[in-house]
Design goal:
By secondary structure, the protein is an all-alpha fold. Helix content is 83%, strand content 0%. It has a domain of 64 residues. The relative contact order is 0.03.
Length: 139
């Protein structure tokens, strides 16, 4: 039989976690390098007449980052607006359903009261008939 040893499973899981951690660390290092090298100049004060203007590659990078941010923000805003619209329509639906349920309950209460009145009238009539029948038998 091929039984899996717990030591072997733990070693495989540890290796997987280590490789995932290494990948995450590598991505984070890449992001840090990008921020330091490619967009760090954005944190500097605006250029004055004595400072040189940004070179073309830096401006292209700024443009690319700005367009990326606008696309991500635009998509997020569109999704948020769509969600708000869906929630508003759901609120309207729930409000309408609440009113419908209130009408149904009111109708049920009226029907129940009418049924109780009818039952009471029938019981009273049956009682009167029973008394009349008992009176005829006793006479």
């Amino acid at each position: 039989m091929n039984a899996i040893r717990p030591e072997k499973v733990e070693a495989t899981e540890t290796e997987t976690v280590d490789s995932n951690l290494a990948a995450v660390t590598e991505v984070e290092a890449g992001i840090r390098d990008f921020v330091r090298n490619d967009i760090a100049y954005l944190r500097r004060p605006a250029t004055t007449a004595t400072e040189p203007a940004l070179d073309a590659s830096a401006e292209a990078t700024v443009t690319n980052v700005n367009s990326l941010i606008q696309r991500v923000a635009g998509t997020s805003l569109a999704e948020i607006e769509n969600l708000i619209s869906e929630l508003e329509s759901l609120r309207d639906l729930l409000h309408a359903e609440g009113q419908r349920v209130q009408r149904e309950i009111s109708g049920y209460a009226q029907l129940s009261q009418a049924a109780m009145k009818s039952t009471r009238m029938i019981a009273d009539n049956v009682t009167q008939w029973k008394r009349a029948a008992d009176g005829l038998r006793n006479s």
